[in-house]
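Hello Y.,

Per our agreement to keep a running log of every chain we model this quarter, I'm adding this entry. I've kept the format consistent with earlier entries: sequence first, then predicted structure.
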Amino acid sequence: MKVIDIIKSSDKPFASFELVPPLKGSDVNKLYNSIEPLLEFAPPFINITYHRDEIEYRPNADGSFEKSVITKRPGSVAIVAAIMKRFNIEVVPHLICGGNSKYKLENDLLDLNFLDVDNVVALRGDAVAGQKVFVPEPDGYTYASQLVAQINNMNKGIYLDDTLKDATPTNFCIGVAGYPEKHYEAPNSSTDIRNLRQKVDAGADYVITQMFFDNQKFYDFVTECRNAGIDVPIIPGLKPISTFKHIDMLPRTFHIDLPEELMYEIRKCKDNSEVYQVGIEWCTMQSKDLIKNGAPAIHYYTMGKADNITKILKQSF
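Predicted structure for the entry above:
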């Protein structure tokens, strides 16, 4: 079932989740074990992130360096197939422009279509480590809106090979990312909203936001989107803080702010176990407020750990 149809047919807010594929060589049961505790809450879908290959320069005996391309996690198609075989749940794989040509993306989409996958999330992806700016692959895309347009064309039976006649259309529901605190590369919020509008105009069906810790920023973001003519559903994304390390890592990695009130509570903590509890309480407060104010769903970034998420859900839904 398409995510957009799930949203429209639901008579109450629901929770969905995002998981990270296991590292290459890991036991697939680690992935299953991270999903099973969440099934208690009957999520209508779960998202699976995509991770591009990484580049490493390894020293040779003569002092020179050899460039190596390292694949650290299995691809989306394999992970989706494994989850669908094990669980009766809609799986929403991420597809990213970074590291992929448009032809590779089309092949992945065709594989997903053959698996009867109805949903994808289209993302640009980040620059690789060591690059200051995002660099597309040859025959790749610079913007997520271009990937959305490709998927939308496939839904119309239009493939990259324009010699194909009477090609079978795909049937993907397309999700995209939104940024309540703006994308870090956008010069201002208005430009970022216009970029989001381009993704919606290209065929996106709904938006899932980057994590945030101040609900007012989400409400302001939704208002800006509606004023800009973006009328698709907007699902807030949340992640509970769980360690002192997150205080530095989350703002630096995701370019978000932590509210002073939250920081005040964290500063009182003596160890990570207390931070963990503060994170649960803060995310629960956010969840209840979002539900009260009409959020159609809440998307939780689990990072493969379910214990704090389950505690939040039991208090919120």
